[in-house]
Amino acid sequence: MAPENSIIELRNLSYKYSSSDAKALDNIDLSITSGEKIAILGANGAGKSTLFKHLNGILSPSSGEVMINGETISKKTIRKARQTVGIVFQNPDDQIFSPTVEEDIAFGPMNMGLSEDEVKERIETALELVNLKGFESRAPHHLSGGQKKLVAIAGVLAMRPEVVVLDEPTAGLDPLNAGQVMDIIDRMNRELNMTVVLSTHDVDIIPTFADRICIIDHGKILATGTPKEIFRDHDLIQKAHLRMPRIAEVFELLQDEGIDARIQIAPADARDEIIRVIDQSGKQGITE
Ligand SMILES: Nc1ncnc2c1ncn2[C@@H]1O[C@H](COP(=O)(O)OP(=O)(O)OP(=O)(O)O)[C@@H](O)[C@H]1O
């Protein structure tokens, strides 16, 4: 039995590409809870994309199983699994095919057999959410990389999946667009109650985004935990080819100055800690 509220359940999942001797995924056990925001971290080649391709049946396990809402993905359940789990690939060119933005976003909902009115409404809502109203007739291949990424997100959004999986959603985007994409992802979770699974190499966005982190290395899970738990473990961070978020470096510098500040990784926690240190030094100043 899958744990209660578990929307995705991976059990002893292993996968080997036919052209390779090594396992790309090696005995993965992971349970993803409905409504959570989970970040999958790992070095290049760790197995993140291979893992994601198992979440809606693009790849089938060499051994083990993938369950969506308690049902193992099989020929019989794959259609339902694909409606439940929508994937936004790393390269938007892999998923945008239609001559116009509107037709591209309509593709998924039309395949679901929805009425014309419903499809129209979904296109409008999806374009509004990604701030691309007015782009309906534009040709996707003439858009910028960031705009294409937004079209790919809108296409998945229009299918209203319970889970959205995003493979490195901010890769190749300038800071402003990366921030915009992260805001959209956050709204998908807060306003549309979607479960979000994403992979990223950007450790600075994780403390504000993720409820939970899962670190994979050479196809195996090294650790799962809250961002605070994971970033406490320096050996783990090194092994996974990651680094501490920049905010933590400020606290390390303060500690080098002999200031009793506890290392923080998220902006709001950093603010609270700095206020605490200032308050404390103020009180010390009064008593001295
Ligand atoms: N089509 C394929 N055929 C053979 N081996 C593959 C194929 N795709 C990926 N691999 C191998 O499987 C392993 C996992 O690759 P994967 O693309 O899942 O990693 P990743 O964590 O997504 O990496 P990145 O961060 O670079 O996108 C790597 O060793 C890779 O070389």
Distinct ligands, ions and cofactors found in the model: adenosine-5'-triphosphate
Query: What global shape is seen?
Result: globular
Oligomeric status? single chain
Q: Strand order of the main beta sheet, please?
A: 6-7-8-3-9-10
Low-confidence stretches: none
Number of helices: 11
Sheet/helix structural class: alpha/beta
SSE string: EEEHEEHEHHHEHEHEEHHHH
Number of beta strands:
10
Instruction: Give the biggest sheet.
Output: 6 strands, mixed
Strand content: 15-25%
Pfam family, one: ABC_tran
InterPro entries: AAA+_ATPase (IPR003593), ABC_transporter-like_ATP-bd (IPR003439), ABC_transporter-like_CS (IPR017871), ABC_transpr_CbiO/EcfA_su (IPR015856), Co_trans_ATP-bd (IPR005876), ECF_ABC_transporter_ATP-bd (IPR050095), P-loop_NTPase (IPR027417)
Protein name: ABC transporter ATP-binding protein
Keywords: ATP-binding, Cell membrane, Membrane, Nucleotide-binding, Translocase, Transport
